[in-house]
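Board work, copied verbatim: PqqD family protein
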Amino acid sequence: MKLKDGLILREVAGQYVVVPTGKRVQEVTSIVYISSSGAYLWDYMKDHEFEKEDLVAKIMEHYSGVTEEQAAADIEKFLKTLADNNILDDGITRGRVFVRMPKGKD
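↓ predict structure ↓
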């Protein structure tokens, strides 16, 4: 998996917001806020392809007092939020796909 291109993370008034640029403005139509933990992971994710397990390992090495099971559950929710908002390139097509067929001559 990887993050789609054309997305940047900005801190606005103490909150982290995913901001689409260019063509992504048409695809990411919701304001997506992420936590500081999500922002920490974003910094890694923007430059790497990754699997859920990679993100769990990053959280485990960065934060103390979190169990691997809790980290995995939280990351699952985080990845779902990104996928549902068309931010994550995970190979799954979501939403509607429209195909325009040329009109044939009758």
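DSSP finds four helices and five strands in the chain.
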